[in-house]
Design brief:
alpha/beta, 5-stranded mixed β-sheet, two-stranded parallel ribbon, 4 helices, about 20% strand, globular
């Protein structure tokens, strides 16, 4: 990961960094479509943002009305390397991919973080004309979430914390 995303979304008592193509704190009546992109193991949301922005430029007018959202699920080395504050949500290197709870500052699942993003997209005061939400990656994440919720996963086993400052 080269950089931490520049926007922050409150999720429980923590903050989730994310890249946004537009400031979604203000109403966005022109937005009709939202695209959520999930980064890979490297937590390189900045690379995904660059690719998506290049695609949007290439699409020209077809990209008008789109809101790009790229959450960044950080791990301990990211927090330490970039000197990020203690209220940033922090998972194990790959734990976020399976919906495991964050190790700090609170045990919030990466899937719960996605739920907060989706709830924000349902806010008609901010996005009154949003008609479509898509993601090239979200189906796999949701399938994994359903599998985790329906299985007897060993969520109580002790894990070494890698997010300590």
């Amino acid at each position: 990961m080269r950089a931490a995303a520049d926007s922050r979304l409150p999720v429980g008592t923590g903050l989730l960094p994310l890249y946004l193509s537009q400031d979604w704190d203000d109403p966005l009546p022109a937005v009709t479509r939202a695209v959520i992109m999930l980064h890979g193991r490297r937590r390189d949301a900045d690379t995904y943002r660059d690719v998506a922005e290049n695609a949007a430029r290439a699409a020209g007018a077809a990209a008008t009305g789109s809101l790009l959202i790229i959450p960044q699920f950080l791990a301990g080395p990211d927090i330490r390397h970039h000197g990020l504050p203690a209220d940033m949500l922090c998972w194990t290197l790959e734990g976020w991919m399976g919906g495991e709870p964050a190790e700090t500052p609170a045990p919030i699942s990466s899937f719960d973080a996605l739920d907060v993003i989706l709830a924000r997209l349902r806010d008609r005061a901010r996005l009154p004309n949003l008609q479509n939400v898509s993601s090239p990656d979200i189906r796999a994440a949701l399938r994994s979430r359903n599998a985790m919720q329906s299985s007897d996963a060993a969520s109580d086993r002790p894990r070494e914390s890698r997010c300590a400052m």
